[in-house]
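Extended Data, panel c. Modelled sequence:
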Amino acid sequence: MSKPPTHGGAKVGEGMASIAEVIEVMKVQARITLPLAVRREIDRLRTEWNPERAIGNPAHITVVYQDEAPDPAMLAERLQQTAAQTAPFRLSLGQAARFAEPLGGAFLTVADPSDAVAGIRASVLASPFTTRERFGLHVTLLHPEQGHRTASAWPIFASLPLLGEFEVTELQLVGPDNAVLANFPLIPNTKLGPVVQDSPSS
């Protein structure tokens, strides 16, 4: 079965209409996929140590989880609105770290000097959506479900050189099997402001 096509910057209600039909019952997230030049070595290690999660699923930073935004159509609309009001920004990849025991697993820390992701989340996750009690930016190297490999993989992950900063130029809407449902480009020379949501009907 082929994956749903990517709709770059499509407007909700136009190109997004078909997406809304497809994602109604899907697990859908918002993410930032790392640029190829940045993720190449990360993906090589992920494919070696966690092929169940890495193949067909490039290294990324999850911005909104499906349990925070359980209405995929509303998530898509808000992502489009927010991206249109957000200029490109920079994130910085840090050192490898381990997920808490007893699960295990490993990830790369991520710094957001301008708090751009926090602004995006505040806009996208306005009511009726909710935010996770615990949320942290990271790039998963080894998922906790395969955490039993942590001891063997850790020396390799720990020696991964610092990859530094990269520019974020788009947000992605991603569904099951990591299919990219939509790309929402960030707009230069804009600043994120409050996204006005429609008032609920009485």
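The chain has a mean pLDDT of 85. This feature is highlighted in the accompanying rendering.
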